[in-house]
Task: inverse folding
């Protein structure tokens, strides 16, 4: 038997984790529990595909920059 999305949400709340973690989509049990990050992701999701693509490209650039900075600091 497969639980409904509602049941999965309730279970994840009881276990203080995420539905993605319960489904094995991630090994990080606290992923997407930051309300500020979720708010931002929801705003991006509402945008047109072109705008979303631009934002993702900018984020990817920042992430790459931070990773390179951390590698250089080693």
Result:
């Amino acid at each position: 038997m497969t639980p409904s999305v509602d049941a999965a949400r309730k279970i994840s709340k009881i276990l203080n984790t995420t539905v993605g973690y319960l489904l094995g989509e991630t090994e990080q049990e606290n992923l997407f529990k930051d309300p500020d990050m979720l708010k931002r992701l929801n705003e991006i999701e509402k945008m047109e595909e072109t705008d979303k693509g631009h934002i993702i490209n900018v984020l990817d650039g920042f992430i790459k920059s931070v990773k390179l900075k951390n590698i250089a600091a080693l």
Notes: The chain has a mean pLDDT of 83. Residues 67 and 73 are 10 Å apart (CA to CA). Residues 34-74 form one domain.
